[in-house]
């Protein structure tokens, strides 16, 4: 697994790893402990074909027990505090839910 990468939220994720779940593409960030994928999407993700692909891939990952959070680039740049709170709360909740 590649070295961890920080989102800027004080958490380290596996960053830009090959999408071993689909066999194609990559995910921006993956937190194995929470089974959480975080995607930071540029403007092209608003295009119909890309949006359809993103939806199909998200459904595929969800069906395998992974949660996908998507944020737009501008959200990361302009609302990083809120994005980080959402990620931190999601990680905490997921880890608690998966605890034996």
Looking at this protein, list some descriptive labels.
Endonuclease, Chain A, five-stranded mixed beta sheet, flat, 100 residues, alpha+beta, single chain, 3 helices
Which parts are unreliable, with pLDDT below 50 for 5 consecutive residues or more? none
> What global shape is seen?
flat
For CATH, the homologous superfamily is named as VSR Endonuclease
Secondary-structure content class: alpha+beta
| Percent of sequence in beta strands | 25-35%
**Span of the ends, CA to CA:** 25 Å
Number of distinct beta strands: 5
Please give the order of strands in the largest beta sheet.
Answer: 1-2-3-4-5
Notes on the protein architecture:
This protein has 100 residues and is α+β, with helices and mostly antiparallel strands. It has a single domain (8-98), classed as 3-Layer(aba) Sandwich (Endonuclease, Chain A). The chain has helices spanning 48-63, 73-78, 80-98, and strands at 4-6, 12-18, 26-31, 36-41, 67-72. A five-stranded mixed beta sheet has the order 1-2-3-4-5, with helices on both faces. The longest helix is centred in the last third of the chain and has 19 residues, at 80-98. The mean pLDDT is 78.
Task: Please sum up the structure shown.
By secondary structure, the protein is of the alpha+beta class.
Which SSEs are present, and which pair or pack?
Elements: E1 4-6, E2 12-18, E3 26-31, E4 36-41, H1 48-63, E5 67-72, H2 73-78, H3 80-98
Parallel strand pairs: 4-5
Antiparallel strand pairs: 1-2, 2-3, 3-4
């Amino acid at each position: 697994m590649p070295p961890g990468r920080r989102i800027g939220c004080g958490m380290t994720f596996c960053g830009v790893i090959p999408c071993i779940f689909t066999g194609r593409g990559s995910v921006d960030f993956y937190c194995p402990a929470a089974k959480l994928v975080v995607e930071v999407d540029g403007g092209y993700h608003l295009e119909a074909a890309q949006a359809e692909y993103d939806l199909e891939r998200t459904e595929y990952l969800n069906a395998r027990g992974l949660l996908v959070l998507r944020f737009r680039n501008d959200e990361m740049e302009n609302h990083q505090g809120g994005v980080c709170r959402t990620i931190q709360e999601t990680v905490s909740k997921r880890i608690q839910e998966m605890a034996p």
